[in-house]
Amino acid sequence: MKPFSQFFIFLVIVLATSYIDAFTRNDFSEDFLFGAATSAYQWEGAADEDGRTPSVWDTFSHSYDTGNGDVACDGYHQYKEDVKLMADMGLQAFRFSISWTRLIPNGRGPINPKGLLFYKNLIKELRGHGIEPHVTLYHYDLPQSLEDEYGGWINRKIIEDFTAFADVCFREFGDDVKLWTTINEATIFAIASYGEGVAPPGHCSPNKFINCSTGNSSTEPYLAGHNMLLAHASASKLYKLKYKIKQRGSIGLSIFAFGLSPYTNSKDDEIATQRAKAFLFGWMLKPLVFGDYPDEMKRTLGSRLPVFSEEESEQVKGSSDFVGIIHYTTFYVTNRASASIFPIMNQGFFKDMGVYMISAGNSSLFEWEATPWGLEGVLEHLKQSYNNPPIYILENGKPMKHDSMLQDIPRVEYIQGYIGAVLNAIKNGSDTRGYFVWSMIDVYELLSGYTTSFGMYYVNFSDPGRKRSPKLSASWYSGFLNGTIDVVSQDSTQLQSNFSASSSL
Ligand code: NOJ
């Protein structure tokens, strides 16, 4: 008997005997999608192969010493092996993104046949294994040429270029793709990339922590965010006019959503939490659902917040068939002077929001603690305040030090806690339709390079072959999906003592 199967049997016995509040895959509807995610720059590698040109993420990563995505997991060459791992795990869906510069190397204009072939092959391979592709069009990797030409997302010209890129994707891949996310975690993308300077392209106001060559932290996040909403709406309109009837897919925008809860039961903290929700969720959701920015933001930002024309407002309103949620952890909110959660600078979004955020789980930026009740709160808030939109949890997972220890028990506890939270939310009426673990395998991480990772498969980044090895989380998720284990809030020491077979490399 393989050590892997042996482990399952151990787990089944332990879990079947030790529980309360158990749930199984069968407690979710059959069409609820369970999957896992990666993104192009973080997974593919082959950065300058077959006609791909640099994105702002290549430029950004090469200017820091956190490593880069030149080779990453080598997914470009190993996609077939990875799809096989997904199929063996029982994944129903795989979320990945399309590298704009692999498909259209100059940002606009001619299509790269080899890039096109890669994504067609990947999608075919997924479909061949019965795995639903969930495609993100934009995941931090703007063509460097467009950044150089006009400043990328802070210029309205991006709307036309993004829509043309989306058009190619819908036309070429749309017969086999039913789920499209236009922009990954648009909210935190605008903040981190155009306010804090910690994500590509690294814009921020001059400050003593980060060497940003360009930027204005008090205006650019709002400008970039505005253009993202318009670009999303424009791509969505195109999809609906030209493709939807035939292709029958859905298109949504994704936002980053912390759990938010008042620090005390004082009126002040309650109001501060509402303000934080307006800034962190309402900024994008209010326009998508109701056609305009939240009043709290208009009042605070004045002319720094762009204004939608009537026509734009109509176009943005209703442009998301679903809301994608990227969720990792929860903060308590109190009505004190603000501080950035990126402990870098404090001149932009977080100062404007004007609240103080205290981690609910002693989390550092690189070590999110599980607080599943926070996700339940987000889903309840979206249900109540934004007309209960269809939701996909597009990312959720636990960062841990990247090493060869395969017993990622905290990650297993984290994931099962959050899946339980999603189930509770659904029972309470949330229209949540899918859940994706970040990440399918260890990848080049956005904020931490190769030092921390979220993967259910360990990747040996020192090995030229980038060998993959399953962690406990992979076996756990697989067992859950295949219905061979009940999920319960099990005791981690039991889990640990029964995971003896393949505990490290
Ligand atoms: C956010 C981003 O979408 C992804 O690129 C990143 O690696 C993970 N979440 C973890 O920070």
Describe the structure in brief.
43% of the residues lie in helices and 14% in strands. The protein is α/β, with parallel strands linked by helices and 505 residues long. Residues 1-10, 12-20, 489-493 and 495-505 have low confidence and may be disordered.
Task: Note the main attributes of this structure.
505 residues; alpha/beta; 8-stranded parallel β-barrel; 3-stranded mixed β-sheet; 18 helices; 15 strands; 14% strand; disordered C terminus; binds 1-deoxynojirimycin
List the helices and strands and how they pair.
Elements: H1 3-17, E1 33-37, H2 40-43, H3 56-62, H4 75-89, E2 93-97, H5 100-103, H6 113-128, E3 132-138, H7 144-150, H8 157-173, E4 179-183, H9 186-194, H10 220-247, E5 250-256, E6 259-262, H11 267-290, H12 295-301, H13 310-316, E7 322-326, E8 330-334, H14 349-353, E9 356-359, H15 372-385, E10 391-395, E11 400-401, H16 409-427, E12 432-438, E13 452-453, E14 457-459, E15 468-470, H17 472-481, H18 492-498
Parallel strand pairs: 1-2, 1-12, 2-3, 3-4, 4-5, 5-7, 6-8, 7-10, 10-12
Antiparallel strand pairs: 8-9, 11-13, 14-15
Helix pairs in contact: 4-6, 8-10, 9-10, 15-16, 16-17
1-deoxynojirimycin (NOJ) binds at residues 39, 42, 184-185, 326, 395, 438, 445-447.
